[in-house]
Amino acid sequence: MAPAPPEGNLLTMSGITKLFPGVRALDGVDLEVQAGEVHCLLGQNGAGKSTLIKVLAGAHQPDDGVITWRGEEVQLKSPIAAMKLGIATIYQELDLVEGLSVAENIFLGHEPTSAGFIVKGGEARAAATALLARLGHPEIPAGRPVGDLSAAHQQIVSMARALSHEVRLIVMDEPSAALDPDEVDNLFRIVDTLTADGVAVIYISHRLEEIRRIGDRVTVIKDGRTVAVGLPAKETPTSDVVALMTGRDVAYVFPDRPAVADAPRGEPVLRTEGLTREGEFEPVDLELRPGEIVGLAGLVGSGRSEILETIFGARKPTGGRVLVDGQELKPGSVRAAVRAGLGLAPEERKAQALLLIESVTRNVSVSSMSRFSRAGWLDSTAERKAARAATQELSLRPDNPDAIIRTLSGGNQQKAVLARWLLRGCRVLLLDEPTRGVDVGARAELYSVIRRLADDGLAVLLVSSEVPEVLGLADRVLVLREGRVVHTSPAQELDEHRVLDLVMEGSPTP
Amino acid sequence: MKQPASEAQQGGPEAAPVADAVPLTKPAGKTPGGSPSRPPLGLRLDFRTLSLLGVLAALIVVGGITKPDQFLDTSNLQLVLTQASIIGVVTVGMTFVITSGGIDLSVGAIVALASVWATTLATQEYGFAGILFTAIIVGLACGLVNGVLIAYGGMAPFIATLAIMASARGLALQITDGNTQVVTLKSVLDLGSRDSYILGVPPLVIIFAAVTVIGWLVLNRTTFGRRTVAVGGNAEATRLAGIDVRRQRLYLYLLSGLCCGIAAFMLIVLSGSGQNTNGNLYELDAIAAAIIGGTLLSGGRGTIVGSVLGVLIFTTITNIFALNNLQSDVQQIAKGAIIVAAVLVQRRTARNGEG
User: What is the ipTM of this complex?
Assistant: First the structure.
């Protein structure tokens, strides 16, 4: 509750609500931004940040709520409308056209023209070069196709595009995620210049230390609601911010681990020997025994997902091997991995796991169809029955095998993915960000489901960017930094601080 | 296999077990828990099927009113159905391909190539079986090339089948040198004659009906059909579920090629000849029929019944227009309008359900 400054806010969003089928993505979010400030937006994955900035960018229409811009109520009916007001958004997945040149991208949609339609290429290039110079990157050639540039340079182009309009507010969605430390410094310098000119910046990042460094105020959202408005970014204790973000008391209720003593778990079911993918991760040796949950902790880009996908055969290793029960798996073959008893719940559930317009049953049975068929003919009664048994075991809601999977909540969608592998009789579960997009209340239940599966003898390899999740759920933790395992130990011997230290060593500090 | 092991510890406030009482066979359309699940799929499909049937019925009424004597005449109805049969068989194969998220532009050219290859003098020496066998093998071979290029060569279906479309058509011209190859085999010609109608139904129509029934069963009742839908719905998810997506794609283009081979044979029977101009624009008719039938061009949903109704609608329009002496230009315009209208309706349906 920051006292509103006398001159009023640049932007006020109040009671913003956005419904998607089956999900209340935003449930009354409030946000106030003043000119010239860096306003940090914090919240876990799935809290609604992305939806909120899409509303602000005019890409989504809110179902309810009021947006006030410089004292006047406005409706952002389209991205163009938002741009005209001076709101620019730099998305996390860069939205550049790879085949067009840097200058063409920057001026896409508002090219300098003569006679209204003939593009003045030279003028555009000159203006682009000037903008890039202002951003501290005069070396980026304005005529180069954007697809040839590095991720960091693409980000600069994205920013130049935002600045090519008359901007008053720039929204940056995790701008530092793809950047090296030097480049982050440069980014901050740019942000400083912008705010000195009176431009407001909404800055989204998971790295709290960045927020301390450049943020002025912080708004925290959780489960589609604002839980704190306008906290001072530099003074609010981390523990307060984290507690607001996570609602830790609710979210992180972890099931008990089995006592260490009664864990004679037998031979490892999964082993990797020097598994490598050049450019993504360095040789990894790990062992997974039945009943054990092993966690991989690390930042986005540290190679966690890549390791999981390589074990699963979705990526082909450049070195090393994967063994299940001592038998080497055919490298780069998902089918071999599945046949050997591996199952993956991937990070991008919708893109990589779900048949969105299909029923729960069909999503669950897709990996086990041969079990319900004779000579190719499906016994759909048996299929439904078995799929339902698997989903009921995981208490999937609604208990309706015909429900279309898209209409389910994130947690229940994830349960359907787990049920798929249970039905298949899988013995090693690879979980990549299992609680992404799962609301806080449903997480605890998912945790207990995962633990129960392990107790039943499954081996689980868990990747999560939320450190408490790894620490709370896993028996053993491998800490990754930049594609390298930097630490291995039982989870009890680690705490969040220690892991964050290990993970972030080498990341920018003031 | 994991079995219950219900340690009751996940209990939660919402005392679960009650739901177990729901009988397995009845999905209980309205889940009491107020679940967000929409009406069962069947209803929506039925609505679409019903509207297609409505359009067809309306067309029959129009035909009956404008040309009461000619349109409803038995021989005219037999003609309409026979014409629908050939493109219909091609459309069944096309429906599978589109359902998987692909496209096959080469169907018309494959029909042409198969029909001329099967009617060369050399082939005709082998009699009825030689013609049938050749037509089917040529269709399968073209499908194999398509499938290998797309599934294992990583080519876009549009490009690969466009290339085969050009080459197959060229090869057909090379074989015939532009001449019509007349079939002299009585056994083949007899199949198209009025004497071989079974209870008034032409054998070609029976072939079409059989292909439709088999196609429906395969799409809806087999693992093959399920995989087809899954690949079209989300190929990456299907791959990560442990299904061989590439092999499935190969099979699908083989299937389309097979349907083209059957259609080529039917065309030979009907016309008593093989020509390199056969099957002209079949690709467009088949795609259009599948799309207005309700198969999603983006893949993930396909309906054989819809496709067949789409074919019947198109054929009926053509027939009515011809009976009323309207030129083919008007027919083409009407077809275009129908495609646009059907796709607009489909888009609305899709948007309503978007996540």
Answer: 0.78
